[in-house]
Amino acid sequence: MLISYEWLKDYVQIKLSPEELANKIEKTSVEVDSVFKRSDGLKKIVVGQILSIKDHPDADHLHITQVDVGEDEPIQIVCGAPNVEIGKKVIVALSGARIADNVKIKKSKMRGVESNGMLCALDEIGFDKSIIPDEWKDGIYFLPDNARVGDEVYNYLGMNESLIDLDVTPNRGDMLSVRGTAYDLGAVFDEKVNFIEHASAPTGTHDTDELISAKADPNLAPIYKLKVVENVDVKPSPLWLQIKLWNSGIKPINNIVDITNFIMVKVGQPMHAYDLDKLNSKDLEVRNAKDGEVITTLDGNDRKLTSTDVVIADDKPIALAGLMGGKDTEVTSETKNIVFEAGVFDPVKTRKMAQKQLLHTDASQRFERGVDHGNVEAALEYAAGMAEDLANGESEQGVVNGSNEEVQPRVISISASYINHVLGTNLSVKEIVSIFKRLGFGVEESGDNLTVTVPTRCWDLKIDADLVEEVARIYGYDNIPSTLPITQTTEGGLTPKQEMIRKSRETLEGLGLTHAMSYSLTTQEKAKMFMLRTSSETPLQWPMTEDHAILRMNLISGLLDDVAYNQARNVLNVPLYEQGRVFYKQDEDQVRPDEVEHIAGAISGSLVANSWDQKAKPVDFYQIKGILEKYLASLSLKGHITYVSTDKMADMHPGRTALIKLDDHLIGFIGEVHPKVAKQFKIKETYVFELDLDYLYTAPKSGQQYQKVGQYPAIHRDIAMLVDENVTNADINKLITRRGGAYLQDATVFDVYQGSNVPEGKKSIAYSLTFEDPNATLKDETVDKAVDKIQKRLTNELNAEIR
Predict the structure, then answer these.
(1) Is the pTM of this model over 0.90?
(2) Are residues 341 and 250 in the same domain?
C-alpha cells in the first residue's frame, strides 16, 4: 500500500525523515518496499500557458503552439495532442528537461518546424497509466487556473510528497489505512493522534428506509448498511482529492466513486455506490449466487457465478460482495440519486471468490485481512457528508441495516509477570501500562494483573499472546536482551529413513543421473498415469491453475515434463531421477490421502556423450535395468529381485516393460514409455523406472560385511547350450545359482545367438562360471562335479541341449 508521508503528518507528529520513518516502520510494524517521490529524477518541468495555436502545414495531427513559460518571450512547441486549447495551463518540459524513464528533451524540428520543448501528459512525467483519470488518458493534462506560470509543476500535482510503499502482512490489516498507520506510529513515537472526523449533518427530508431496504445473511455479511444521497452533481473530483487517490495508487473516477475510495484509504472501510435509479428493485439482499447467474462487473468482464459466490442483488446480482460492483448500476455523470453501501463481508468467502474470479481488488484485500466492525456506520455517514460537500447532494436521514452485529471492545486479562517471562524482560507494571495507553488501550490495574480493553480498530488482537507481541513491538525488539535458551542439547543426526533416502540420492547420482524436483500438483490426466496401484484422486478445492489441480500419484509424469522442457531447448541427453511423495486414497470418502515415498528415474538420449574414444549410444532397456540393479544392490535387500514382463500398463511399451518384485511383492516397474505417451509429452524415446521407497525401507536387509580378497586362485568354466527362445536369462541364472554348489561365485552371460545353424524357436546362450574356495586351493575334480550337476539340471528342467 502506498501511503503519503505528508498525509500522515496531518494526524501525528513525526520528527523523522521519510527514509528514517520507513526504517522505523520496518523494525516495529510491517516491511517497507520503497520510499520515493514522483518528482525524483525529473527536472525543468514547469507550468506553461498556451497563448496561440495553429495547424502544422505538413501534418494534419500536429499543432504549432506559442507557450508562456515565465520567460521574456514565449517558446514555440509542436504538439500532437488532440486536446490543446488556448488559455489552458499545461505541463511543459523545457529544452534540457528530464522526463519519465530519464528521457532528455532537446530542441528539435518536427516536419521542418522548430520545437523548443514538450507539452506533457501525466504518464510522460512518470504517472502510471493505471491511475490517470480517463479524461486525461489520451491527451495533455490541464493544470488548475491558479497555477503560476513558470513554477515547477510538482507541488501542483502532489509529486513532491514522499510516498512509503508498505508491504502489509495478513495480520496487520489495520495498516491498510492512513488512520491505522497513524495510530500505530502514535504508539511507536508516544505522540498523540489527532484523527477526529465529523460528518456533515444530513440535509435531506426523507428517511433512508423510505427509499430503500436491505437484508443480509449474517454468515455472509455480519454488518451491512445503506444510506441514500439524492440530487448529487456527479463530476470530476477537486484536485486535492485526486492527488490523495493517485498518491495512494488509485485512479480517480468521479467525485462519488472517489469519495468511496478516499474513505477506504483514509479509514480502512471499503465502500461502494450504486445509482439508485438504475436498481430494478429497491430491496437489496446479500445472498449466495445461483448457479449460472451472470454479472458484468465494472471492469467490463462477464462473470459466470456459482452457489459459492456471494453477491449483492435486487432481482438479479448487481455486485460481487467485497470485490467489485456491477456495470448496470454504475455511477456516471447522468446519475442523480445514489446509495452508499458499507459493511463487513466474510473474509474466507471473499478470498475464495477473489481467487476463483481472478479478481483481487483493493476492497477484497481489506476484507480478507479484516476491517473495523465498530467503524462501519461512521464511515457511511462520513461518505454521505462528503457527498453533500463535493457533489451538492442531500443526505437522507438515518441508515438502513441489512444486518448489524453488536460490536464491543475486546477485554483481555494478562499479568505483567507473564509478559516479562515470555519476553525475557524486567519491565515494571507502570512501563507496561504506559505502552498499552500509548496504543490507545484502556487498562485497569490490580497489582500484577492487568485488564486491557482493546478498541475495535485493533481487531487482530484477541488473546494474551497478542498483547505480549504489542508490548515487544512498542518497547522495541532491539531493547529486548539476547540470551541463549536454557535447555538440554541433543546430538543431531539423520533418522534411518533419512539416511536411506540420502544414500539413494548419492547412489543414483554416482550412476550418472541428475536430481530433479517436480510439483506435487498436476493435471487429472497426468496424476492417473504410471500408477503402481489403484487409487482415488485427491483434488484441490481451490487450485491456482488447472495444471496444478490434483495431487500426483506417480513421479514419472513430472520427470517427463522435465525431459520435455530440456529437449525443447535442444538438451537431448537427459538422465534424471526424483525422490518424493505420491498421494493415494483407498476410496473417494477418504479425506486425507496416504503419503507414500517413491523414487523414480527417466533417461532419454545417451548417458555418454560423443568423444574421441567412444561414440554416444542411445539408452536401452538393459542399460537402465543395469542402473536399477546397481541401486537395488546398494540397499542390501535380503529378498530375491525378479523382473516380470508385462503388457498391462497402458502408458508403457508392452514389449519393453517389466514389473519389479521383491520376493512376491510388487515394488515397482521399469521399461520404455509408450510411443503414444512420448508423443503426447513431445519427447524422444525415453526409459523410466519407479519404485516404492517406503516398502524398500521396511523390507528385511542383509548386514553389509567385509569380504576378504581371496588368496587362492579361481577356476573358470564355460557352458554353452541351446534352449527354447522363451526361456529367460533369469530362469537359467536362478537354476545355475541354486545348483552350482558352495564354491560358485558368479555366473555371467557372455554370448547370445539366434540365426543360421540354430534351429527355429531356439537360441544359443553361453555362460562363464567362476568357482573359488576362500580357504584352500580348489581342485578341478570338485569343479567338474559341480559343472556336471548344473548341466544335468539344465537338461532335465529346462530341456537344454549342452553344446
Answers:
(1) no
(2) yes
